[in-house]
Amino acid sequence: PGLLLLTSFLLHVKAGRASPTRLFCDTRLIHKYIGEAKDMERKASQCQALPPLACPMVLPLVDFSLKQWRAKTNETKRREILCELALLVGAATGARAEVTQECAGRQLGLLQRHADSFLLLLQTFSWQAGPQEPGCSLRSMEHVQLAGIFLTYRQLVQGKLRFFFHDLAKDACE
């Protein structure tokens, strides 16, 4: 899945006129990733009952106001999603180290690879040259249930990432 995203990215970047945003013109791609996020969440919920994690994981709160979201620049949106993805990857890594069940570990590994792919993609470009914004200042919450990672990832892909891809498509696609 991560290789597919990277390959799609590379196929849409033209020499001399690199435009990674062309990747977002095909809306089927984001819908594919939403479906995969839902599938991971469903498969993880079917694993044997897992005890609460010994170390609570910090997950970003990914809910948002559409009105406030639309008022942000693409660069601000990109940075916000990058911060949330980084926190999610860290939580998945920590949980994966603690979980001994193969079923849950496999789904965590898949989530980690998908989130890493989005991180790599979003790190490859930015739209505004200008003053750097301060580092991540996220709203977050501690969770001890593994299901929280999958729920947060699905909500992020289904929400902010989908709207972000849509915004990019509006600006870059004909």
UniProtKB/TrEMBL annotation:
Instruction: State the Gene Ontology BP annotations.
Output: cell population proliferation; positive regulation of ERK1 and ERK2 cascade; positive regulation of hematopoietic stem cell proliferation; thrombopoietin-mediated signaling pathway
- Protein species of origin: Crypturellus undulatus
Compartment(s): Secreted
Lineage, uppermost ranks:
Eukaryota, Metazoa, Chordata, Craniata, Vertebrata
Q: Which domain of life is it from?
A: Eukaryota
- Using the UniProt record, give the first listed, main subcellular location: secreted
Q: Which family does it belong to?
A: Belongs to the EPO/TPO family.
Q: Which UniProt keywords apply?
A: Disulfide bond, Glycoprotein, Hormone, Secreted, Signal
List, alphabetically, the InterPro entries matched. 4_helix_cytokine-like_core, EPO/TPO_CS, EPO_TPO, Thrombopoietin
**Gene that produces this protein:** Thpo
**Protein name, per record:** TPO protein
Q: Does the keyword Ribosomal protein apply?
A: no
A Pfam family hit: EPO_TPO
Signal peptide positions (record): 1-18
A molecular function GO annotation = cytokine activity
Mind telling me which PANTHER family this protein's record contains? THROMBOPOIETIN (PTHR10560)
Q: Name one GO cellular component term.
A: extracellular region
| SUPFAM superfamilies attached to this UniProt entry | 4-helical cytokines (SSF47266)
